[in-house]
Amino acid sequence: MKKIISIFIACIIITLVGCAGDSNGHEGEAKTPSGSSTQKGRDYIEVVNDFKEKGFKNIKTEKMEDLITGWLTKDGQVESVSVDGDKDYSSDVWYSNDVEVVITYHTFSKEEKSDTESSDEKSSETVKQSTNDTSTESNQEILTVKNNKDLAAMLEVKDEFHPIVGEFAKKYAGRTIEFDGNIANMTQHEDYTTRYDILIYAGNYSETTFSGPNFKFEDVSVLDLNLTGSKIPEKIGMGQNLHITAVIEEYNGVSGLFFIKPISIEIR
Fold it and tell me: Which portions of the chain have biased composition (kind: Polar residues) (predicted)?
């Protein structure tokens, strides 16, 4: 009987020692984030940040200067990621934290970028020369509650399905608006850990009231928000008051969501 008890105690000790060894057995190592197939198509900066957060120290980026228009593939979109030479690595695998991580992404060649910029400049100059109509110039003005009564009226409504919202979105599609708002809700976009869907209301944050449409930043990273000003926090989240400059994308009359693309965000 004593032998059985001794053996039992010995097994417990071995198990505890083994567990302790496991908890401290990854010093100098880093664990991979999402697998290689998941990384393809993401923005390379976000992928770099993911690997940094996991503890990898030897991260390199390689450009594929193969874009012509950027319609199907976006500038900065990841083509492949390799860890220690393996492009088919799996998630949650431990490696030495100094193994080489190579993130390959698509971008424009220097010549293509130069041609695009030159073309844009010529197009802009042509527009300026073709008309002296002051209304054309005003179309480029950022819309605010002070210079646009339609925006001011829309931000006061208490119903995201109010007809004025859809009318405004249709009339001013593609234009830039600037207004005070707040983060009413913020969730991760799909399975990503660094991309978010952010619901924006007009005015200051309140738990009981709201005004304006259900503005939404969809599938954005913190970098996409282009945070400015002297009060940039380490983290952003629900309840923060913002001063928003964004481009009107579209309004969905079924969901009541008004999609906008951030240009710059200042924490108020």
Answer: 127-141
